[in-house]
Amino acid sequence: MKYYLLLLFLVFSLHIYAQESQDSIKSTPKTYKIGIQLTPPFVTQNPNGTYDGLSIKSWNLVNESLDYTFEYKEYTTLTALLNAVESGEVDFSINPITVTDSRMQRMDFSQPYFISHTGVAKRKESQIINILKNLWSWEFISAILALLGVIFIFGFLVWIFERKKNAEEFGGGKGKGLIEGFWWSAVTMTTVGYGDKSPRTTGGRIIGLIWMFMAIIIISSLTASIASSLTVKSINDEINGIADLNRFKVGTVNSSSAAELLDLYGINSEKLEAEEEGIELLKNNEIDLLVYDEPILRYEIEKMNAAKSIEVLKQTLKKDYYSYSFPKNSDLVDQIDPALVRMLKRMEWENLIQEYK
């Protein structure tokens, strides 16, 4: 009987201990791991080590109603961050991750909290240097040669008819006569009309009449061709779609939605670890274009004091939707989404967006 009572006491004690342990576990809130990567202006770090930025502030507003206990886990590259989310190494990420078809197969996403665009950065072009370059371009040289060729042909034809009967104006030897014919043809074409030379033979006058009318058409088209070759064509004018990027040396950030877009359209691009590296390559003329998220490009260009030499084109390649990212089939999506939607309707969020624009 004594042993039976002792056994009951032990069982009861274990039950009480297990219950207290379970209550203790329930009373201790889970600490969620939130993956981040420094991505100004969305995720930045203060001198004291704390994190700031638009995405951080968005989460602070969302968490006011959730009251989660959390800690940030920083990753140095976008690739590492995406892999951490996909593998469940972190519970979710609040970084500005663009929702794409391929990413939706790897992970889940919340409602978008920011709408952006994929932008293109390039070096600013010098108008004077481009004009000087165009003066030595084949288009300009070929247009000039074509103009001189047409002038010479009509000068030669009028010389054929005038060299004997109008020797004082078109004679004086073959070389000098051809030069005189060339001079007359040029003066007639430009309608300067010095009157120092004029055809007197019937054949010469017919050539002259034909040349007068033809010169109006020819000089117009050739002038347009020359003007076109001298016109400074900026990269802005040459990019009307993604396919046009094939003519340039392009850089982008590895594993970004911009990289996915370029690969989808078969655009060869240099994959970089961060946008700062791409801006340096632009400054050093090692790439022609840097394709990445427009607001991040603009922020980094200002931050690196590169606005004098680098600009972001007005043309954008596609619209981007930034969302929180979660491991596939995470229960947290259904918990966080309602709070995120409520946050998007708050005036504080609208003010934050205006502040970061």
TrEMBL record:
Alphabetical UniProt keywords: Glycoprotein, Ion channel, Ion transport, Membrane, Receptor, Signal, Transmembrane, Transmembrane helix, Transport
Solute-binding protein family 3/N-terminal domain segment(s): 31-357
Residue runs in coiled coils: none
Membrane topology: Multi-pass membrane protein
First-listed, main subcellular location of the protein, grouped into a coarse class: membrane
One GO CC annotation: membrane
Signal sequence interval, chain numbering: 1-18
Protein name: Ligand-gated ion channel family protein
Classification of source organism: Bacteria, Pseudomonadati, Bacteroidota, Flavobacteriia, Flavobacteriales
